[in-house]
Amino acid sequence: MTDLKNYIETHKELFIEDLFTLLRIQSVSSKSENKPDMLKCAERWKELLFEAGCDLAELHTTNGAPVVYGEKIISNNAPTILVYGHYDVMPVEPLELWKTPPFEPTIMDERIYCRGANDDKGQAFMHAKAFEYMLKTNQLKCNLKFMIEGEEEVGSKNLYLFCEANKEKLNADVIVVSDTSMIATDTPSITVGLRGLTYLEVEITGPNRDLHSGLFGGAVANPINILCKMVASITDEKNRITIPNFYDDVLSVSKEERALMAKAPFDEKEYRKAIDVDELCGEEGFTPMEHVGIRPSFDLCGIWGGYTGEGTKTVLPSKAFAKLSMRIVPNQDPDKIAQLFKKHFESIAPKCVKVKVTPHHGGNAYVSPIDMPAYKAAEEAFQETYGKKPIPTRSGGSIPIIAGFDKILNTKSLLIGFGLEADAIHSPNESYRLDHLFKGIETIAWFYKYFGEKK
Amino acid sequence: MTDLKNYIETHKELFIEDLFTLLRIQSVSSKSENKPDMLKCAERWKELLFEAGCDLAELHTTNGAPVVYGEKIISNNAPTILVYGHYDVMPVEPLELWKTPPFEPTIMDERIYCRGANDDKGQAFMHAKAFEYMLKTNQLKCNLKFMIEGEEEVGSKNLYLFCEANKEKLNADVIVVSDTSMIATDTPSITVGLRGLTYLEVEITGPNRDLHSGLFGGAVANPINILCKMVASITDEKNRITIPNFYDDVLSVSKEERALMAKAPFDEKEYRKAIDVDELCGEEGFTPMEHVGIRPSFDLCGIWGGYTGEGTKTVLPSKAFAKLSMRIVPNQDPDKIAQLFKKHFESIAPKCVKVKVTPHHGGNAYVSPIDMPAYKAAEEAFQETYGKKPIPTRSGGSIPIIAGFDKILNTKSLLIGFGLEADAIHSPNESYRLDHLFKGIETIAWFYKYFGEKK
User: Fold this and answer.
1) Which residues in chain B touch residue A395, judged by CB atoms under 8 angstroms apart?
2) How far apart are CA A211 and CA B426, in angstroms?
3) Does the beta-carbon distance from B323 to A308 stay under 8 Å?
4) How many domains does chain A have?
């Protein structure tokens, strides 16, 4: 592997060019208008896999976006890695906050700015290029399978079915995913825990039409007022969730594990400064890293109702809406939580309004073992490129399908991500550092090498 | 006046044609893009006043929309009526709820559907035509002045200045306004009380950019969650407003007056049915008619933040916003209330967010005397056309400038409106009944006659 650094150095321009072809495709999975872009992006991935050296690369149609599958089988006796990634991205709104066009990759300050630059086009792309290097230089000692889906940001509904139907094809010793962050640019980490997710939408209806707020205000219930009261009551003054039985299945984390977690470098002042808030605001009795790592949360992801244009309009609106997500922790079931929320939310609605609760997608939390061979191989790989051992961390984010892999394919996942919090994934001006892109390719190549030598 | 009914009957088509020329102009005062339409609408009003017989009709430029002024002076000894109306209209959003194009007047079921059909193009228009009839038939025994402004829906800021600067020109015995509703189509009423208004906008800022709700949710304050908690706390479980000192200046209404109010016909079941709500929801200890007539209210007119598009987006947004109005009652000061709100709202904000409160327009409440000559003349006029005496009522709506007239011009206002609650003013599908349009012209002509004979 002596030529690895040199290989990356000489191929940088080509890597960027290839990645940009993916980034320019507006593959927003939650918007029906982008359906043709989903197919286009899947096709581009198929080409990339062939170009990288896969013997097989194909699209599998589903009821939603197609799944890209590719493979390079070295030997039936070699260990097998299944690389999982996704080519779909989050919506780009609010558009006015982007400094560069969201789907025109732009390099500034040694970063690629574009929706998907990190999540997950940039990160999944590193695997294609690490694989290409290993194969070209005749150093690949493991089989590689790629499964790149197009519905991760909307719950991977069809990938569950695809996995059920293709257990044999997807058979592997480990699933490797680069779709998470590391602690800091010089502090590599491996994500060993992910929160799950329950996402719902609520609609409150007051009067059957918008009313004049003067003629009716004070006598007729205002659905925005009521919606605010209802969602406000979902958390209490200790920032605990008030839904009955919500915490029933939450496993308490041992003192020992909490003490270990507390050892990860965390500077609250720096953390607050980076997002410009004077105070954090989490559940009483837990640290910020515990809030996102081991505790559930309740967030309004969107709210709207009434007049939101320029100037003023005195109106008592007919309807108000909110989109909300609950991050859940290991042992909580997303469907059960959705039902608990629905039952509770309907029960607290006053009779002066009508309530509609619509569950969107959900996913289980996941905890990854740190004693499996893949974890050890990853530790060695990071040691090669960063000169230090990665820290095992728990992320607050969710990749719902990871728990599904465990259940359906009976295969554990290894989460080696190279993002940073500053990459602003899901936000305007998402970006990915060029040095992380190249160091990621380097680390992944080392990982393939060490994993090929295990088993 | 024997030919009045016949005159209206034979001129119906012409009246509708003239009114439609006003309705087609998109004079939305709160939107800067509609500025050219404001001038166009003012010009059209000037023409209408000349056509009706004014000796003078002119536009007065202001820092905002122009004021249309017209007059017909019969004699310096005759009593003088100043007709006040407005040519601006409310925004038309949400557009998708309109059954007909909002600025293309359409007659269906004996109603004119259009933004402004009632409020206030249709209602102010009746005065021009009643005046035209009186003048043409040589029966006008009072002087008439017209002042039609273009900023009523945004607080009439420039009309206050116009009044200050034109006291002599606007000198009159009474100001007459048709911009309110009557109790029912066969139950005429005169509005003797109007609530005032304080309108504000609030902005809550959490982190300096949208964050991933998984990576940060639970540790970092979500501005939508916080906004909901803050506005939810503005009213208590008795639907009373919790802002300290808010009720200090509210005059309590006597048992006698409340008993009188209770005599107005009101069928709660019908009221609820018309707007399809199972329960009303007002301040404890008061009736629905009291809620809108004599008590203040707090309404969220608009709320927005985060992702509001199709499907899902897991985001912890940077900002959340709300527009809110408080209807106030006689003796409450809109600016004082705005300051009380601002102080309180800022004081309840947790340190994890930043709060910005921006007052928009406001206006005082108004109570109209029922012993003035104009009120008596109006009673007689309604008796002529409806065969019954009008009931004095208090409306929950606000016409902020009315209190200003009292203060600046030292002139009382008479509020004779011909709208119905079903006209859906400020809402999609605003409409005005054709029979109310014509009966309104008839009643106003009688009013001019009787008022000309008073003094």
Assistant:
1) 214-215
2) 7
3) yes
4) 2
Question: Which chain B residues touch A193 with a CB distance below 8 Å?
Answer: none
Q: Looking at the domain assignment, is residue B88 inside a domain?
A: yes
Residue whose token pair is 């709100």: B341
From A281, A295, A298, residue closest to B350, measured CB to CB: A281
Is B440 domain-assigned?
A: yes
Stretch B128-151: mean pLDDT: 97
Please answer yes or no on whether B306 and A307 come within 8 Å at the CB atom: no
A48 contacts A40 by C-beta, under 8 angstroms: no
In this predicted model, what pLDDT tens digit does every residue of A101-145 receive, in sequence order?
999 999 999 999 999 999 999 999 999 999 999 999 999 999 999
Contact B396 A214 (CB under 8 A): yes
What pLDDT digit, counting tens, does each position of A145-187 carry?
999 999 999 889 999 999 999 999 999 999 999 999 998 999 9
Question: Of the candidates B328, B344, B362, which is a domain's last residue?
Answer: B362
**Do B213 and B329 fall within a single domain?**
yes
**Token digits for A31?**
């918007």
Query: How many whole angstroms separate alpha carbon B347 and alpha carbon B344?
Result: 5
> Residue A228's closest CA among A147, A128, A305, A293?
A305
**Interface contacts (A, B; CB < 8 Å):** 376
Residue A165: give its domain's CATH number: 3.40.630.10
Q: Are residues B65 and B83 in the same domain?
A: yes
- Name the residue range of residue B327's domain: 196-250+296-362
Q: Is the pTM of this model over 0.90?
A: no
Distance of residue A390 Cα from the nearest chain B Cα, in angstroms? 19
Least Cα separation, residue A194 to chain B (angstroms): 9
Of A332, A382, A335, nearest in space to A359 by CA? A335
Is there a domain that residue A24 lies in?
yes
Assess if residue A179 is contained within a domain.
yes
pLDDT digits (tens, 9 = 90+) for A61-100: 999 999 999 999 999 999 999 999 999 999 999 899 999 9
Q: What is the Cα–Cα distance from B10 to A200, expressed in whole angstroms?
A: 60
CA distance A140 to chain B (A): 34
ipTM computed for the complex = 0.82
**Residues in CB range of B76: below 8 A, 6 or more apart:** none
